[in-house]
Amino acid sequence: MTLGRCRPFLDLVFLLLLSCLLPSPGQSASKVPFHGVGVDYGQLGNNLPSPETSVELIRSLRASAVKIYDANQTILRALCGSGLVVAVMVPNDLLPSLAANQSAADAWVADNILPFYSTLRLRYLLVGNEILSDFASNSSLWPYLVPSMLRLHQSLRSQSLTRIKVSTTHAMDVLQSSFPPSAGRFRSDIASPIISPMLDFLRRTSSFFFLDAYPYLAWSQNPNSISLDYALFQGNASLNYHDPASGLTYTNLLDQMLDAVAAAMVAEGFPDVRLALTETGWPNAGDLDQIGANVHNAAIYNRNLVRRVAEQRGLRTPARPAAAMPVFIFSLYNENQKPGPGTERHWGLLYPNGTAVYEIDLRGRRPASDYPPLPPATNNQPYTGKLWCVVDGAGGVNETALAAALTFTCGQGNGTCEAIGIGGACFEPNTVTAHANYAFNSYWQQFRSTGGTCYFGGLAVQTTHDPSK
Ligand SMILES: *[C@@H]1O[C@H](CO)[C@@H](O)[C@H](O)[C@H]1NC(C)=O
Ligand SMILES: *[C@@H]1O[C@H](CO)[C@@H](O)[C@H](O)[C@H]1NC(C)=O
Ligand SMILES: *[C@@H]1O[C@H](CO)[C@@H](O)[C@H](O)[C@H]1NC(C)=O
Ligand SMILES: *[C@@H]1O[C@H](CO)[C@@H](O)[C@H](O)[C@H]1NC(C)=O
Ligand SMILES: *[C@@H]1O[C@H](CO)[C@@H](O)[C@H](O)[C@H]1NC(C)=O
Ligand SMILES: *[C@@H]1O[C@H](CO)[C@@H](O)[C@H](O)[C@H]1NC(C)=O
Ligand SMILES: CC(=O)N[C@H]1CO[C@H](CO)[C@@H](O)[C@@H]1O
């Protein structure tokens, strides 16, 4: 594959001159490099359109920016001439070598950033994805995070690529307390060793603290104590929250979450580091036992979000009314290879075939009344019926993959597969599919309450029909 800088297609030269080489007019006036809303372009699907088509779709959604989860050169080349502001990511596993070695950081920048700097509006370099939230396998990466950021910043400066801000992304679990918002504090395990030096770096370089914040996740874990309307930006005054310590009034859950992070930064001694929202959104579908994941709510959340951004000229919160944040919506597509519960595969604005899941104008200028009616929300109450986890037969069954999953599953838990052993009560019918039906369900019923999902690499699905019947 030939990788490298944008090819100077003749018919693109004029566009490139207009959209890339000249600084855009709004930019010098404002410290936020773009107004409007960006979109997160993830590629964890085996049925997604090409980067070229994806860029067309992103533009048709009227996004002003795009964030990708690596520095994929095919995508960066497809973005040439698009006029979109671009955020790229350094893969997590590169952190140790980048932190240890300035030449490695210089080389990464020379290979991945330099070829595109003059022709793309590259503005953000995000070093790793939610590194401080991965406890199991990746806490070993924590010590490398800030050193990698420093080295990459140094590399950019030494190669005169000064318009790019270096940062990283965080999930809400970097906080140990978030309520009331004024009591927001960083986790004690990361506050002074990692967050504090990071905030110092972000302040010195006028960069942003990038946050992935999902009111859906907060609400769906506490649907009885948080109002759905408050999470969807459509609460009335009776739902407003008054923070007793700050005296500020909150009209929605997202502002509350963002201000908890702002308060944590104040407590750490960095009141002036700006926030940016690198991911937010609402799932358009999920598993049968997942509440509130539907097209209706997803459309309302994202449409209200973009309308707020348009009205406020950037997202602003009660604690920081003067600081407009860049915003990215997660995500461009429903991605069918994301593991975890069903919602994970349904955050998209678009289906993989490019059709909109619901209409949305990311500029936020289209009035609500102008959109066609939405399907009703069918699952805004918790599902209370019985559920089973079985082989997903739709689209055919891959017996090789199923047999491997069966072996794996039967090795988990206590007696997961006893009944399908030789002489067991459910040995017959002795087929891979029948045995997998039993094993998936047996596993899921054991581990459901502790976060086990009915997924099995895409081979399983929840059902309301008792498979033993
Ligand atoms: C970059 O993205 C393209 C398009 O999806 C994909 O075919 C390619 O494998 C990716 N390259 C890398 C190095 O991940
Ligand atoms: C530092 O990185 C450069 C470029 O990737 C590599 O050639 C060199 O071997 C590395 N040095 C050490 C000590 O790891
Ligand atoms: C305000 O919202 C709550 C909860 O959604 C609702 O029960 C109440 O009727 C609303 N009040 C007014 C005045 O609209
Ligand atoms: C695209 O995919 C969606 C969801 O699977 C489907 O409902 C829709 O009909 C498809 N559209 C086209 C044009 O194929
Ligand atoms: C079936 O699954 C196996 C193992 O995961 C994989 O190697 C193979 O490509 C799959 N076959 C089809 C037709 O998808
Ligand atoms: C199996 O059961 C034992 C004893 O009840 C328990 O200690 C162990 O954690 C269980 N193993 C799994 C994988 O659930
Ligand atoms: C999210 C993430 O980056 N996870 C990585 C944690 O580390 C393991 C082993 O190094 C990787 O395989 C994961 O991808």
UniProtKB/TrEMBL annotation:
A single BP term in Gene Ontology: carbohydrate metabolic process
Molecular function GO labels: glucan endo-1,3-beta-D-glucosidase activity; transferase activity
EC number: 3.2.1.39
Protein name: glucan endo-1,3-beta-D-glucosidase
Species the sequence originates in: Apostasia shenzhenica
Coiled-coil annotated residue ranges, if any: none
Domain of life from the UniProt record: Eukaryota
Residues making up the signal peptide according to the UniProt record: 1-28
UniProt subcellular location: Cell membrane
Domain X8, first and last residues per copy: 387-468
Family per record: Belongs to the glycosyl hydrolase 17 family.
GO cellular component: plasma membrane; plasmodesma; side of membrane
Catalytic reaction annotation: Hydrolysis of (1->3)-beta-D-glucosidic linkages in (1->3)-beta-D-glucans
Protein topology in the membrane: Lipid-anchor; GPI-anchor
Keyword tags: Cell membrane, Disulfide bond, Glycoprotein, Glycosidase, GPI-anchor, Hydrolase, Lipoprotein, Membrane, Signal, Transferase
Pfam families in UniProt: Glyco_hydro_17 (PF00332), X8 (PF07983)
InterPro entries the record matches: GH, Glyco_hydro_17, Glyco_hydro_17_plant, X8
